[in-house]
């Protein structure tokens, strides 16, 4: 969803009166008057259309280079060992995969806030999945509550995190389990981590029905800030990472896993090219939201 604002023109708005106010003249000159007036009107129509086109282009330019809510998945990765990531879930609308997510308890899923467009959209969660085309051990769970961060908006990349409370608690086993969240603190640069998801295997490529994974390495905040700019990257609430493999179109909401801990939520990438070194993938920093997460879960229980 794009938030487009039209800049107002500094020129006075032409009126119908200004186009057709004519000086007194003789009847025999009327033919020339209409011709000259019509040419005058045509010139102004063309000028106005050019201005409108330029304003539209200017309003869309940020979205031609960056995107805050691109659905992302895995490029240059490999198929994950079946059920080696039992915390991974597929968020689905009308039985179609739209985003990734991960279990943080037997009752809650964490994902990106932009994965849910708001009521009346209804999502279901498929747990225990590896191949989305085969439901050997996987099953669907309804969502009871959608809890986006209170400061998240569709017009910003910030606070792109959401909790889903499931209608029923999942049964933990070898195929379904939750992943630990980080303690307070930050992930240092040059830390080897991994990402996983279903979706496109390259920028304009096909999606994968099987869970894919790839290694990626975190980048220090200063470099992320330089490559994205302060309008898009905020070190206090974001992490960026890059590697041979990484995220692409199709699976926002999946975890950035360092060690055995989910430290980030896949948020956005460059819309021009997936996993681009000049625009490293960006993840919502989970540790920045621990007070909100714990408070909400504590209030529920």
UniProtKB/TrEMBL annotation:
Keywords in alphabetical order: Disulfide bond, Hydrolase, Membrane, Protease, Serine protease, Signal, Transmembrane, Transmembrane helix
GO molecular function: serine-type endopeptidase activity
Domain of life: Eukaryota
Transmembrane spans: 44-61
Residue intervals of the Peptidase S1 domain: 74-298
GO process terms (BP): proteolysis
Keyword Protease in annotation: yes
UniProt xrefs under InterPro entries: Peptidase_S1_PA (IPR009003), Peptidase_S1_PA_chymotrypsin (IPR043504), Peptidase_S1A (IPR001314), Trypsin_dom (IPR001254), TRYPSIN_HIS (IPR018114), TRYPSIN_SER (IPR033116)
Protein name: Peptidase S1 domain-containing protein
Source organism of the structure: Cyprinus carpio carpio
